[in-house]
Amino acid sequence: MKITDIREARASIASPIANAYIDFSKMDVSVVAIHTDVIRDGEPVVGYGFNSNGRYAQQGLLRDRFIPRLRDATAEMIVDETGENLDPFRIWEILMQNEKPGGHGERSVAVGVLDMAVWDIVAKIEARPLAQVLAERFGDGSTDARVAVYAAGGYYYPDDDLERLREEMRGYLTLGYTATKMKIGGVPLADDLRRIDAALEVIEKPECLAVDANGRFDEATTLAYARGMEHYGLRWFEEAGDPLDYEIQKALGKAYSGATATGENLFSHQDVRNLMRYAGMRADRDILQMDPVLSYGLVEYLRMLDELRAAGFSTRNCIPHGGHQFALNIAAGLKLGGNESYPRVFAPFGGFADSTPIEDGQVRIPDVPGIGFEDKAALMDTLRAHLD
Ligand SMILES: O=C([O-])CC(=O)C(=O)O
Ligand SMILES: [Mg+2]
């Protein structure tokens, strides 16, 4: 088999929302399509990839370095031992040739976008959902029939008020979600506590509401929020301090009895190893949110899981960031703790297949080959509009 074409483009996901650190008025993502000469159902197999929100489109890196490396590789260099499918691990080595260690981030996004498309192809050639492929290759052979998902939102809006937030939370419950997440850190603590109270009027169960500070706080503010929020018993307190400031995370873990969450801005297994070494993470409650597509793809995510296991954590500690179907397949196939979802933001890249509604806070993997993009009409329309 061989790759016949690689296309990339940039797609806007701009919106007026803001978290404690950035607004999304200029946010965009890279989208790629990798075409092959393998025929399934009468059509050449095409794999799709895109990055999730938070990091921007990576067109320069894709065009100048990573796509040319893949284009220049011979057919023998990129296939597995059967010669009939791609080998994502060999492709990863080709993408990363002549890249120095360290300084992860941004290039990890470019590689992750291509890696997503490669795994979509692998599962399409096997004519099975990616979750099943992963369960057999790297898991215990079976997939989780349903994955717990939570609705991430609760952003700051230009015309913010508490009723808008309550209305948003009501909407998530109507869609079938039982758990949600909202932003903190964009306004003073007293105002954030009023926002949490408003969300809890709707969600009712504090163990079903998580809060996310997006790395905004210094240590003193982290501890002030920990004291202010501890009595609620919330689901988790996410990214209190800078993602690489493991001392802040450690101080939080010591001071705060509730669960904490972090990892969406760690892009390599070396960063995860350091988190395990220095951040005082607690295996009995804390959540790890590394996002496979932002962090060099599934090939690297498997190495991160090895780091976690070595430190005494379970795959169930992991609830990836990003709200995409790629992470959903990984969650089902490798038995993670759940997956993020963005029902109201970052359309059409957030949310899951059209045929799998959220039921009681959980979602199934659709029975379609690959990652399942073809079962999500709005996403396919966007991908095709940019890449055909
Ligand atoms: O607002 C963002 O950057 C997204 C985010 O942190 C999340 O989904 O946890
Ligand atoms: Mg977050």
From TrEMBL:
CDD domains: MR_like_1 (cd03326)
InterPro entries named in the record: D-tartrate_dehydratase, DgoD-like, Enolase-like_C_sf, Enolase-like_N, Enolase_C-like, Mandelate_racemase_C
Gene3D superfamilies reported for this sequence: Enolase-like C-terminal domain, Enolase-like, N-terminal domain
Residue span, Mandelate racemase/muconate lactonizing enzyme C-terminal domain: 162-259
Protein name: Mandelate racemase/muconate lactonizing enzyme family protein
